[in-house]
User: Fold this.
Amino acid sequence: MKKGILLLCMAMLCVYLKAQTLPTGFASTDFIAGATWNSPVGVSFTPDGGKLFVWEKAGKLFVCNRQSNGSYTRQTTPVIDISGEVGNWHDYGLTGFAFDPEFAINGFIYLLYVVDRHHLLTDGIASRGYVASTNQYYAATIGRVTRYKTQTNAGNLVAINSSRKILVGESKSTGLPILHRSHGVGSLAFANDGTLLITHGDAASYESIDGGTDVNTYYVDALADGIIRDEENVGAFRSQMLNSHNGKLLRIDRETGDGIPSNPYYDAQAPRSAKSRVWALGLRNPFRMSVKPGSGSTLPQTGDIGEVFIGDVGMGTWEELNIAKAPGMNFGWPIYEGMTLHPDYSRLTVVNKDEPNEFGVCGGRSHLRFTELIKQDNAARNKRIYNPCNAAQIVRDNVRFLHARPAIDWRHGQDVARVGKFDGAGVATQPSIGTAESGVTGAGFRGNSSSGGIWYVGSGTKPFPEEYRNSFILLDYGGRWIKKLKIDYTDVITKVDNFI
Assistant:
């Protein structure tokens, strides 16, 4: 029981939760006595519970070892400190961590972080102008994924610096673009098949409707440095581009950083390209994700990674919990927010310069608009996209062009939460939970910062009460709450209860 509360508390709502009345059978406790922390952003237990990893936003990773009485003691020496490389500003820093599925054998760990621009431009080398005390924040840069091997040295678990391997972001043009103060790097997780999953945001401005060339962003330097291509200067619409890392759930080989051949848009001629790494698209700020335990195949070649639960932070109205359960799903941002069209982005006429119209010039342009390349979900699963100048011509026919609605969305400022259904004609509807049409028991709720969550399957020596078994524990940082969701085997939510 302590493990679950710790995971939730340290990851998101620690200070707030201490003041709350906990459900029967739960208690709040200082799990690691005597330890102080500097903005911890995540925790992860090894499968046997013997080690607990805690990573701090500034770039330090610590390990805490379980003692015979069940408590944990933090190792004084960090496993690794990459604070000199990490850009620790606004929402950014070391946000993602994972240990290898075979960590007990190979000792590999994986880190996801924003690179300090000064470090990026100098490669951290003094002869190229690097000064350790210099930081360059609030500027165009990239997110990076690195792997290190760890070893035990004088009783301490430490990373071997010489083992450093960059999997994503070995150069300015191959990283995860960062063009604003938020909507960047998110989480790392392993699928059951051993492939490494990454979430990354759209890098667009949250201060405006960003359709490209937005003065609130760092697009000028991003273009000059090759962080983005000219075609990617489309703001939030990068989430809809296959040839962009932005707004995506990515899936890579943990040895090479290449995309996986069973990814939906893999290109054998360019295995390190963005489209070769894309598993799902149409995300805004997918800061936290988790994989349902036991879901998916153990074989990478099957292309079945199970169910990935993604908390996607909304813009002005709706927060989302998305479930990526098949290759190529498109969660709709920025044309859609939540279940329905975004009132502003859906009206923009921005052209996707990576998507030519094979039938020729249409409306004075040779390429299709982003809004012409996605349609609302429908019961028939009709995913055909037609030529805007000739409705008899099919220009696209792929799951990528069909809006994958969230499993649930919830509103800012009002107690309204919705699920996706269809009416008798097969048209998408979005009834509020608690109604007969929704099929979901529970009351509506509000929030403004979807924070994902974890599955609780009922294992351990001190399990939660039985009613928590096989539940998804959902969080909203802005709403300051935790809820318990019951979800059936088809990934349909059936019940929502308050947890805290």
Remarks:
- The longest helix spans residues 2-17.
